[in-house]
Design brief:
The protein is about 10% helix and about 35% strand. By secondary structure, the chain is mainly β. The relative contact order is 0.13.
Length: about 220
């Protein structure tokens, strides 16, 4: 059985988008409305806690943003998050608390739960990264198929046409992605799973698994 519903993948207590996500069954259903959510939610944020350096951009006063970072609207950046040198946030980005958006990292149409790390040369687009998930250096989400058809999420048991031309990856809570890995369009990785460095990943990876760079998947053991 595929455990890929929002309730299977994420802890709702670790994102400001929890109420928004609760409207949907599968995480990719939430991707098309991220911009609208940010604009509406941002209006409710206190000016005592958040700066708004430009229209529809809200940055928590405890966040650290390097001068060389580029932040496009709409965007919310949470408390104690660090946005480092030359980060490129292209908009439609919900970035939680205690996150790292590192050197030359590019984000576009994403929800990053609290404590997510994208620290070095990552591209994350049309994706959702769960609580405490970590992208190793150089790992990326590929969000468009080469033939430009709809992204289909596939497993051994079933397939789901997302009705989206652009969908990157969905990482459940506490997922670790090894350096220089590529997560192909429609990849869904369950909670507490690890991906070996230099892997090419597609489809659904079960929770509590290890994806090896030869494509094999093994269950974790206590």
């Amino acid at each position: 059985m595929d455990m890929i519903k929002i309730t299977d993948l994420f802890s709702p207590d670790h994102t400001i988008a929890s109420e928004y996500l609760s409207k949907f069954t599968y995480p990719w259903e939430a991707l098309s409305g991220i911009s609208e959510f940010i604009i509406e939610y941002g209006k409710t944020l206190s000016a005592d806690e958040y700066d708004s350096p430009s229209e529809n951009v809200w940055i928590h006063k405890t966040a650290t943003v390097f001068e060389s970072a580029y932040i496009a609207a709409p965007c919310i950046i949470g408390a104690n998050t660090e946005v480092r040198h030359c980060a490129f946030i292209r908009g439609s980005a919900v970035i939680g608390e205690n996150c790292v958006v590192g050197n030359s990292v590019e984000l576009k149409n994403v929800i990053l739960f609290d404590n997510v790390q994208t620290p070095h040369y990552n591209y994350v687009g049309d994706s959702i990264l769960g609580y405490k998930s970590h992208m190793g250096a150089g790992s990326i989400t590929s969000n468009v198929k080469s033939d430009k058809t709809n992204v289909v999420v596939k497993s051994t048991y079933s397939s789901f046409d997302t009705d989206l031309k652009k969908m990157g990856a969905i990482l459940g809570d506490c997922v670790e992605i090894g350096c220089n890995s590529v997560l192909n369009p429609g990849t869904v990785i369950g909670k507490n799973s690890n991906v070996y460095p230099t892997s090419c990943v597609r489809g659904i990876i079960p929770a509590n698994s290890i994806f090896k760079n030869d494509g094999s998947i093994v269950a974790k053991h206590d």
